[in-house]
Amino acid sequence: MKCPYCGNNETEVVETRASEDVDTIRRRRECLKCKKRFTTYERIENVNLVVIKKDGKREQFDRDKLKNGIIRSCQKTKVSMEAIEKIVTEVERELRGADSVEVESKKIGQMVAMKLKKIDKVAYIRFSSVFKRFVDVEDFEKEVRRLIK
Q1: Element containing residue 91 per DSSP (H, E)
Q2: Strand intervals (E) in the chain
Q3: Most exposed among 61, 84, 99, 147, judged by the fewest C-beta atoms under 10 Å?
Q4: Domain spans of the chain?
Q5: Using an 8 Å Cβ cutoff, are 124 and 116 in contact?
Q6: Has residue 129 got a pLDDT over 90?
Q7: Average predicted confidence (pLDDT) for the chain
Q8: What strands, in cross-sheet order, belong to the sheet with 11-18?
């Protein structure tokens, strides 16, 4: 494993744990050159999921793209990286457990929105504004009113 700090290829596994989802192994590693520690995750490579976009195009499911979208929605909130990782893992697990390897982006957005709604209303509104393509202030206002009810 390559050290993210100095690029050295020689690292040592210091600790190994199964994560909460049991599908992932978390490893703490130490670079043998610079002695800095970092975390890696190991998970089984599954069948590729295909996301059907709003315009009908298909693209491969990208866990990092989903995670980055959630991170942007959660900026300046109290949502931790652990909570974001948990959302991504739960969504991916649910998608992989479905009957089809193809899923509409709308469904993924709904899944994430519902999970964010439970942990942080501001992150939920931010995510929804992109996912639901809010056009003007009235769209925000309608969603906030629904959230308050």
Answers
A1: helix 81-96
A2: 11-18, 24-31, 37-43, 50-52, 58-60, 102-104
A3: 99
A4: 1-44, 46-148
A5: yes
A6: no
A7: 88
A8: 11-18, 24-31, 37-43
How far is the CA of 9 from the CAs of 26, 37, 85, 124, in angstroms?
19, 13, 26, 40
Q: Which residue has the tokens 């652990």?
A: 82
* Cα torsion angle, 32, 34, 35, 37, sign: negative
Instruction: Name the residue with higher pLDDT: 30 or 117.
Output: 30
25: burial class by Cβ within 10 Å (0-12, 13-18, 19+)?
A: middle
What are the tokens at 113? 């929105």
Percentage, residues of the chain above pLDDT 70: 92
Amino acid occupying residue 145: R
Q: Give SS3 for 1.
A: coil
pTM for this structure? 0.63
